[in-house]
Design brief:
It is a single chain. The chain is α+β, with helices and mostly antiparallel strands. Helices cover 58% and strands 18% of the residues. A two-stranded antiparallel ribbon has the order 1-2. A hairpin with a 5-residue loop joins β1 and β2.
């Protein structure tokens, strides 16, 4: 069971994150409705200050889409 206080704290942190990174949030808004569907490949790369990068990806299945919808509803 998820602690409601944890959800509220996360929601506040998410709001602050969206204020700090508005371009990223706009990007997510575009891709969530137009590009993330079954079969889409979602990839993320993290590069540290020294230039070392790590990358991961996933191919979205219907269950993943359901998770994204749940997150979208949680975050408003």
């Amino acid at each position: 069971m998820i602690n409601p206080m944890t959800v509220l704290r996360f929601k506040k942190e998410w709001e602050l994150f969206t204020q700090r990174h508005p371009k990223f949030i706009r990007f997510l808004g575009v891709v969530k409705d137009q590009y993330i569907r079954e079969g889409s490949i979602i990839e993320i790369t993290v590069t540290d200050p020294d230039g070392k990068a790590v990358r991961a990806n996933l191919k979205a299945v219907p269950e993943d889409i359901a998770v994204f919808e749940e997150i979208k509803q949680l975050l408003g």
